[in-house]
Amino acid sequence: MPPRRLAALTFALSLALCLVLAPTPAAAQRIQVLVHSAPLAGFQYYAGKILWDEMQEGDRLALVRESDNRHDPHAVRVEWRGTKLGYLPRSDNRAVAAEMDKGTPIGARIGRLSRDPNPWKRLRVDVYVGL
Question: Which residue positions does the secretion signal occupy (predicted)?
């Protein structure tokens, strides 16, 4: 199975499981289920390097759909405190974009920070679905 299709299937199955196992409304806002992890694409081109010392693992990230992005119609921009850090990788963004387009509440946070010389290994984005 192609990696893109496998990623989409994994995301869809995770989301379905989350919805089936949804708790009572009072507890729903406290539970988040990790459905996807990906490196941050474009770290070296945006504000990640400048903001590095301020960011911490676990910090909340905003995911913003860019359906009009001329390079990728499934683009999902990643922001930290209103500043663009980069994007979910093109190979990993299709399922997340589709759920965002449906209105599914999706959140993200910094899963890992690493001073690795490879920019693809510096920041991991963890994507969550709230229950």
Answer: 1-28
Residues 21-71: tens digit of each pLDDT: 455 555 445 677 888 899 999 988 888 778 888 999 999 999 999 999 999
Full domain range(s) for residue 58? 3-130
- Of 35, 44, 65, nearest in space to 125 by CA: 35
Q: What is the CATH number of the domain that holds 98?
A: 3.30.70.2330
Give the chain's domain count: 1
Which helix (H) or strand (E) covers residue 38, if one does? strand 32-39
* Percent of the chain at pLDDT exceeding 90: 52
Residue 128 and residue 106 in contact, taking contact as beta carbons nearer than 8 Å = yes
Residue by residue, DSSP assigns 59-121 as -EEEEEEETT-SS-TTEEEEEETTEEEEE--GGG-HHHHHHHHHT--EEEEEEEE---SSGGG
How many residues are there in the chain? 131
Name, in order, each residue with C-beta under 8 angstroms of 22's C-beta and a sequence gap of 6 or more: 28, 131
Torsion angles phi and psi, residue 120, rounded to 5: -70, -10
